[in-house]
Design brief:
The protein is of the alpha+beta class. It has helices at about 1-10, 55-60, 90-105, and strands at about 15-20, 25-30, 35-40, 45-50, 65-70, 75-80. It has a 6-stranded antiparallel sheet with strand order 1-2-3-4-6-5. The protein is globular, with a radius of gyration of 14 Å.
């Protein structure tokens, strides 16, 4: 599942990945703004994604594999253990939402298009 989510995250327009925190965490950014982090050296990998405060509260309350964002703003980020509890479709949806939330905050100077998405 980790390899699949990494491939998917790398396909977003303008997505760049790096290891700014060391080899333990692969970070995905759009125009220098992080939208996902994937753990690298764990038995059960985790992905950390941005979400709305409402979604964060719902997800952490509903799923054992979802917790407030590890080392992140707990109100706007969730960390998901890739244990299989969440379906691939749900992970894809959450990844798309994370990218959308970050890309929608980019300024025209950063490359934001008129519809709010990075071009």
């Amino acid at each position: 599942m980790k390899n699949e989510i990494e491939k998917y995250l790398s396909k977003f327009r303008g997505s760049e990945s790096s290891y700014p925190f060391g080899p333990e965490a692969l970070v995905f950014k759009v125009m220098g703004k992080m939208f996902a982090l994937v753990s690298q050296e764990e038995d059960i990998p985790r992905v950390t994604l941005k979400c709305t405060p409402e979604d964060a509260a719902t997800l952490t309350g509903q799923f054992k594999s979802v917790s407030p964002g590890y080392y992140m703003n707990k109100k706007h980020w969730v960390t998901i253990s890739l244990s299989g509890e969440l379906s691939q479709d749900m992970l894809i949806s959450l990844a798309e939402e994370s990218y959308r939330l970050v890309a929608s905050k980019l300024t025209k100077k950063d490359g934001k298009s008129g519809d709010g998405f990075f071009l």
